[in-house]
Amino acid sequence: MDTGMKQIDWLAKPALGASLVAAIWGFNIVVMKIALNDMDPLLFTAARFLLLTMVLVPFVKISTAQLKLLLPIALVMGLGHFYVLAVGISIVPGVIASVCFLLGAPFSTLLSYLFLNERITPVQTWAIVIATIGAILPTLLLGQNDLQWGVFLVILSTFMWAVGNIQIRKLKQLSVLSIQFWIAIITAPLCFVAYLVRADSTPILPQFTISIILCLVYVVLCSSILSYSLWYGLIHRHGMSRVAGFVLLQPLFTLTFGYLILGESLTLWQLIGSSITLG
User: Fold this and answer.
1) Nearest by Cα to 70 from 225, 175, 193
2) Torsion of CA 216, 243, 124, 28, to 10 degrees
3) Using the 8-state DSSP alphabet, how is residue 94 labeled?
4) Does the pLDDT of residue 128 top 90, yes or no?
5) Is 69 helix (H, G, I), strand (E, B) or coil?
6) Which of 94, 125, 173, 213 lies at a CB distance of 3.0 to 4.6 Å from 258, suitable for a disulfide?
7) Is the Cβ–Cβ distance between 199 and 57 less than 8 Å?
8) pTM of the full predicted structure?
9) Are 18 and 243 in contact (CB under 8 A)?
């Protein structure tokens, strides 16, 4: 029956789809912070990718020929981004992590210029420098050693996210779900084995509370599958430079959800730094 309503094409206009992605990712940081308060980052990363693998198996055509292409991406995104991000979020408040994520757009713009021959103007170059200073300087000057280490890890994970986007941009022949599947199936066992061989690892089952299970379900279904399917589709259709700027919306969502759910807030200097980066 024709209801007269048009189906929304989330990939047609980058602003629409990328804004939804930013909202999902913004809430995802708060969800991860809740889970990582009670679960080891290695175990959390292993669990999220094990669940993601189980969900995606029925929907992907597995070919070992893809392994050679996707192994570097799996290491960059699975370990370099997702695991390092989990460690960083376990150290710093989600709202501070959100400020570091502001560097995602300038990192992506810079790497697109270096490796994809996408245009970058002198204004964008200065914007990258100013954004970097605004994101990291307040915390590095005023924060404690643990906080500074956590900020460094989140910034590193953000840079690796940008590197992974460049790698994926070059693989238009592979589906988003196939990319996600290989990232998951490679990362999960690596993190799980690393957790088991670590001397101070705590028992596994007690860490899987109802709250953490719900967090894992959101991270897998909403962040890993829904948002990244939209994101990679937008990158392939519109190019990295056109959609990267919308990543700047993510910290705004994280700040809002972090304040409402976790009671987190930024210091005056951190607010000033984030304002400089957004500007």
Assistant:
1) 175
2) -20
3) H
4) no
5) helix
6) 94
7) no
8) 0.80
9) yes
pLDDT band at residue 187, thresholds of 50, 70 and 90?
very high
Which of 7-16, 157-166, 223-232, 267-276 is predicted least confidently?
A: 267-276
What tokens does 186 get? Answer: 């490679």
CA nearest 48: which of 229, 185, 202? 185
Tokens of 142: 């005023």
Which residues lie below 8 Å from residue 166, measured CB to CB, with a gap of 6+?
108, 111, 112, 115, 116, 240
Which residues does 93 contact at the CB level (< 8 Å), separation at least 6? 33, 258, 262, 264
Q: Which two tokens stand for residue 258?
A: 């972090």
Question: Looking at beta carbons, which pairs linking 195-199 to residues 24 or more positions away fall under 8 Å?
Answer: 195/40, 195/42, 195/43, 195/46, 198/42
**DSSP code for 201:** P
